[in-house]
Amino acid sequence: MALAVPSRSAGRFTSRVGGGSAFFVKFYYITVIFTIHRLDAYDAADADDAPHTQIGLADGAYSASQDSHVSREYWIEFGQALQSFPQTPKHEALFESGSRDAGYYCYIRLRAYERDMAGHAAFEVEMTNHSTGASHRSSHFHVFCEAAALNRLGHSLERWARSDSPKFEFTDQNHDWP
User: Fold this and answer.
1) If both were cysteines, with which of 13, 18, 126, 171 could 109 make a disulfide (CB 3.0 to 4.6 Å apart)?
2) Architecture of the domain spanning 2-170
3) What is the pTM of this model?
């Protein structure tokens, strides 16, 4: 899925008038791509058999991708949590699969949270495959974004999870929210 998010780069310049210095903040948008692929069919009759999925997120500078077994109910729940984000300044919308414990196959953490008292939001991505040596893969980064973009992401995610489509992709061109 993709998500257009504001990102900041701060700089410092020296003013020639008055001899002081000032700070400026430059805003620019980067495209974040968030995809989910169901790698096998979902069998509603077998509630214990969560579909094998591949989850990926990239923001232009960093990316993460990990496969896991995730039921559509978890995606629906996370989509609903994103749609109602934020309810309070400390509210978080959290999706986790696996565990940080190395005895598990992998760990995936996706978290929406407010990063400051002004209400600016961020989306945390943490993924690891718990392999060792040259097979180990791990990524952990935060993407600054608008809460409204996370709400739209949640709407699209819930709608996809309720569908039979094997592929989910959210981009900033998705203008299909209500």
Assistant:
1) 126
2) 2-Layer Sandwich (3.30)
3) 0.77
